[in-house]
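ESCALATION

Customer reports they have been waiting on this structure for their group meeting. Please prioritize. Original submission:
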Amino acid sequence: MKVRIDAERCQGHGRCYDLAPDLFGEDDEGYGQVIGDGSVPPSEERPARLAVSNCPERAIEIL
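Update from on-call: job pushed to the front of the queue and completed.
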């Protein structure tokens, strides 16, 4: 499982990095970014899905 953020859709609400700080961080302007290559370890699958479902712009997707 991997996650990715569509930078065109992200508005910088920060819910992704609040809900799954091991998977997401913020860039210099406060927009969400994936940490590393986006691979999600089994222990982080629930937080990843929570981040996806809580993104107002639906900018995060699971691959």
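Sent to customer with the following note: The chain has a mean pLDDT of 97.
Escalation resolved.
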